[in-house]
Design brief:
This protein has 443 residues and is mainly α. The chain has 20 helices and twelve strands. It has a three-stranded parallel beta sheet with strand order 1-2-3, covered by helices on one side. The longest helix is centred in the N-terminal third of the chain and has 16 residues. Bound molecules: glutamic acid (GLU). The site of glutamic acid has 8 residues, from loops.
Length: 443
């Protein structure tokens, strides 16, 4: 049987750090097992789902390198969910409930304040036909709950090992809202069965869903997939992902100049026993993928680490490989020697624009050490300039001004680049050219 895993986002937002990781892990698992990767859009909520988000998610996935083999959309499969619901009604495993959201919320709060688990009290099961008719006459529409039984629910999780739940301690889940829209629980099961999904890989916030879904799967006489529930991502302090990090979208990371391979390298390894390092390709990540390497502790995500990986990746890019990308990003003419002069100073490709301005543009610099800088300008060697020019110039400046070391270099660097750090000046000088350098020193 072909292995199939799916990524099932709701198109109610763009991909963010959390769900991009779920997508990546599903993809890596499938590729490592010669399987099929299904992208399924969970768009049953017509109010919150949009085509723009759906397209955005597809764009984000392709950018990250996650092509899918198959595609499905829940909004086009509603008749299947109706059919499953009818079957569950026929066998008496779903029942109509008439409580309003406010009533339910009050019940929950009361239970919690008594230190009891917020399990639905099944009051709706005790309603007579007459009670129900009365609610309907008031204009109330029922929502539908699945009737859990007391069976113990067990599975062997690829990450968590043996997991056990008591059906008796699990609340009856709502499957269909009072406006007739199915919630995530039932459609997901129907699709996994009909689209031959063999592995369900998702965050551990879904563990309770799995327990519930396994009973529904049994009731529908479907086959149970293999489950893997990954620990959630947390920040470096282990505090769960802050709102800012949690909602950090791939679109924003892309805009900020992060490379897909840096993101994949980090997201593919956090929470595993492998060291975090830059992976050169998705193939390399795939080869190293194994659920046995996943731990139970939260996966630590840090922007600093992402930035480190991103720089490391960029520092090794070859000119011919990166040129198309740079052109698209900057719309600038990027010469080969310029790329090699600055690449090791870039934390993101976008930063190349700053260095382009330094080398080829006009820079407003305030010269604080004016007399010294002007004296240095008088010592500038004649053109043409090469990588040797810098040392010839420095020697002359030293002899004329008597300065040396940092006192000599720093004012020149500041005057020429406007920054106190950057690529070696011996590489920048020939790129800038004598005229530009002169203007900057004397301007
Ligand atoms: N649409 C669900 C979610 O985003 C899918 C969960 C699952 O993988 O089953 O939470």
């Amino acid at each position: 049987m072909t292995i199939c895993a799916r990524f099932a986002p709701s198109p109610t937002g763009r991909l963010h750090v959390g769900n991009a990781r779920t997508a990546l892990i599903n993809w890596l698992f499938v590729r490592a097992n010669d399987g099929e990767f299904l992208l399924r859009l969970d768009d049953t909520d017509k109010v919150r789902s949009t085509d723009e988000y759906a397209q955005g998610i597809e764009q984000d996935m392709l950018w990250l390198g996650l092509k899918w083999d198959r595609f499905a959309k829940q909004s086009e499969r509603m008749d299947r969910y109706d059919k499953a619901l009818i079957y569950l009604k026929d066998i008496g495993r779903v029942y109509p409930c008439y409580e309003t959201a406010d009533e339910l919320s009050l019940q929950r709060k009361t239970l919690l304040s008594q230190g009891r688990p917020p399990i639905y009290n099944r009051a709706a099961l005790k309603l007579s036909d007459k009670d129900r008719a009365k609610f309907e006459a008031e204009g109330r529409k029922p929502h539908w709950r699945f009737l859990m039984n007391d069976d113990v629910i067990e599975w062997r999780d690829l990450v968590r090992g043996d997991v056990k739940f008591e059906g008796a301690h699990t609340s009856d889940p709502v499957l269909i809202r009072s406006d007739g829209v199915p919630l995530y629980t039932l459609p997901s099961i129907v699709d996994d069965e009909e689209l031959d999904v063999t592995h369900v890989i998702r965050g551990e916030d879904h563990v309770t869903n799995t327990a519930v879904q396994m009973q529904i799967i049994k009731a529908l006489d479907y086959s149970t997939p293999t489950y893997a529930h990954m620990p959630l991502i947390a920040d470096q302090a282990g505090d769960g992902l802050s709102k800012r990090l949690g909602s950090l979208s791939l679109a924003v990371l892309r805009e900020d100049g992060f490379e897909p391979m840096a993101i994949a390298s980090l997201m593919g390894k956090i929470g595993t026993s492998d060291a975090i390092k830059i992976s050169q390709s998705m193939e390399e990540l795939t080869k190293e993928f194994d659920f046995a390497k996943f731990g139970r502790a939260t996966a630590k995500f840090s922007m600093d680490e992402l930035a480190r990986l991103n720089s490391e990746l960029i520092h090794h890019y070859e000119y011919d490989d990166v040129l198309p990308h740079l052109k698209e990003l900057t719309h600038l003419d990027i010469p080969r020697d310029f790329w090699y002069a600055v690449r090791e100073n870039l934390k993101s490709l976008r930063e190349i624009i700053e260095w382009w301005v330094v080398c080829y543009g006009t820079l407003e610099v305030v010269n604080e050490d004016k007399d010294f800088v002007e004296a240095a300008a008088d010592c500038l060697p004649d053109s043409p300039w090469t990588e040797e020019t810098w040392s010839v110039w420095v020697k002359a400046v030293k002899e004329t001004t008597g300065r040396k070391g940092k006192n000599l270099f720093m004012p020149l660097r500041l005057a020429l680049t406007g920054k106190d750090h950057g690529p070696e000046l011996k590489y920048l000088l020939p790129l800038m050219g004598r005229e530009r350098v002169l203007t900057r020193l004397t301007g």
